[in-house]
Give the backbone structure.
Amino acid sequence: MDTWAAVFLLSHFLFTSSVQSAPTPSLPPAFQETAVRANALVEKILKILPAAHSATISIQGLSLDSSTQTSNLHLMEPSLGVPASPFLKQPSAHFTLDMCVSRMLAGVQMYQDLLEVLSTSLSGLEDLRSDLRDLLTHINKMKEVAQLEGDGSDQNPSLDLVSGLKDSYRVQVAAHLTLTQLRSFCHDLIRTFRVLPSYGAAGAR
C-alpha cells in the first residue's frame, strides 16, 4: 500500500469514527466523503510544503522552522501585504457549519491567490497551487451537498501583495511568510475536519 492510500484510509477511519460517536445529527454522506478527501489533500500539502519552501527560498538560515527569524520578518507583513489566515473556531451556538466552511473556503482561496502572485517571480510552487485548487473544489462541494448558504466569509479580500514585491529579497520574504502561514492554516484545517461532525446539521439550510 502506498503512502497516499494509507493516508486516505486513515483519514477515512478517523473521520468516520468521529461521525459515529457524535451525538448531533449526522451530516450528509457525500459531505463526509468529500471531507475525507479534502483532509487527505491537506495532509499532502503539509508534506510537500518543506520541499516547496526549499525550492523557492534562498535566504540563508530561513526555513519553515526558523521561528526567531520569522518573528522578526513578521514586522514586514504590513508593507508586503500578506494577509492573515481566516480564524477557525470550535463549534458553538455562535459559530455554525456555514461559518466554518465559509472560512475554510476563504482561507484556501486566499492562499491560492497569494501563490499565484508569487509564482510570477518564483518557481517551485506549481504542485502547491494544484493541490490548493483541488482542495478548493472539495470544500465547495462540501458547501453544496450540505446546502450551506455561506456567511460572506468566503468572499476573498483584495490582495495588495504585488505592490510590496519590489525586489528579490521582499519576494522571498513574502513567500516565506505565506508558506509559514499556510502550514499553520493547514494544521487548523485538520483540527477542524476532526470536529466537523459535532456541528451536525445545525448550519444547514
